[in-house]
Design brief:
The protein has about 400 residues and is an alpha/beta fold. It has 2 domains: about 130 residues, Leucine Dehydrogenase, chain A, domain 1 (Rossmann fold), CATH 3.40.50; about 220 residues, NAD(P)-binding Rossmann-like Domain (Rossmann fold). About 40% of the residues lie in helices and about 15% in strands. The strands form 3 sheets. A 7-stranded mixed β-sheet has the order 12-11-10-9-13-14-15, with helices on both faces. Strand 14, helix 9 and strand 15 form a beta-alpha-beta unit. The protein starts with 5 loop residues before the first strand and ends with a helix. The model has no long low-confidence stretch (mean pLDDT about 95). Bound molecules: nicotinamide-adenine-dinucleotide. Nicotinamide-adenine-dinucleotide (NAD) binds next to helix 7 and strand 10. Pfam families: ELFV_dehydrog, ELFV_dehydrog_N.
Length: about 400
Amino acid sequence: MTTPLLSLTWTDHVTGRQGFLVVDRLVRGVASGGLRMRPGCTLDEVAGLARGMTMKEALHYDPAARYVPLGGAKGGIDCDPRAPEAYPLLVRYLRAVRPYVESFWTTGEDLGLSQDLVDRAAAEAGLVSSIQAVYPLLDDEAAARRRLADAFAVEVDGIGLDELAGGCGVAESVLAALDAASVPYAGTRVAVQGLGTMGGATARFLTRAGLTVVAVADIKGTVYHPAGLDVEALLAARDAHGTVDRSALRPADRELPGDAWLSLDVEVLVPAAVSYAIDTGNQERIRARWIVEAANMPVLPAAEALLAARGVTVLPDVVVNSGTNAWWWWTLFGDIGADADEAFTHIRRSMRGLVEQLLARAEADGTSPRAAAHALVADRLPVIAERFGRYR
Ligand SMILES: NC(=O)c1ccc[n+]([C@@H]2O[C@H](COP(=O)([O-])OP(=O)(O)OC[C@H]3O[C@@H](n4cnc5c(N)ncnc54)[C@H](O)[C@@H]3O)[C@@H](O)[C@H]2O)c1
């Protein structure tokens, strides 16, 4: 792993809690990457996530598109997002890193934080926007900002388009993998860890594609029905942190322990919550054929090697969950308009193309899909550097 351009640790003067910012690299003077809040968040974790953002930006490079890549970055705050001190801490963190957000770090929601909350805290911290650093790169800033604001106002069946874009890409990755293996959608069972932004949207798109979501886990535990859950009812019963109100469960839905989602009899597992969820200790309980990483870094490398040895394919985060970031930029730079159908079509086409490329490369090189993703990035980064210079 290359050394990041910038890596900082901030200590809050009120609570003593820490926050982190890692800028892996700048491209055109800007780096993109969300901000997460979770108890136990570390600088190492944020550095890994920042590197992943560089890769996501590179993977979506299309020389013919209006959006061309930025660098990768990530922020993290070590705090429970449901704690009373969480919001004031978020505001103080954003005040502390304000010069970076103003000049080169574009950020947004990630684990533990919603975009609404990031926007509110950013305004309170004196920022114009959490993505203002990219504005100088836009041809028509006013039109671009209007387009993105309009896109954020689009809702599809009660969920904002911004909260659906990423899950649309995750679901399309699942479908592309099933198609490559000639496995029909109907009868394919799925368990999802996390029913927040990513997990919730993924569960919706997979259900609508004809798969059966038999289990979802949130912070309170796993909800399970072998014949399939009523995903829309669960989505409607979430609080702002993605916790499902258990009174919405049907009588036949069962409540299982938090880690039960992992070992159920399903074809597809979608970890869509925390990093490091699958380790060498629990990987042996997995019965699925595919693990599709909606979350960032949910499978530890040593666990992935053991899973690969017994024929379980892990589709890597840098590809699978890259739809959200790309959707922001496609919309802002004007590759797509503020329209759900246009967004979903573009996301599906791009994600399917990427997953097909990834699987073909893995097959040709005899490697894992993750190694193939890294190989694709290694091919692309010099092309991007050639066009834009390393730090211009
Ligand atoms: N939101 C985005 O735009 C985005 C984009 C790409 C990747 N990601 C990644 O996806 C993952 C989820 O992000 P999100 O924004 O959907 O988060 P979120 O805060 O919206 O939702 C998190 C969900 O995970 C559940 N959860 C938290 N801890 C858990 C635990 N220990 N066990 C079981 N469930 C748990 C919560 O109850 C909630 O349902 C993160 O790894 C994040 O980095 C998010």
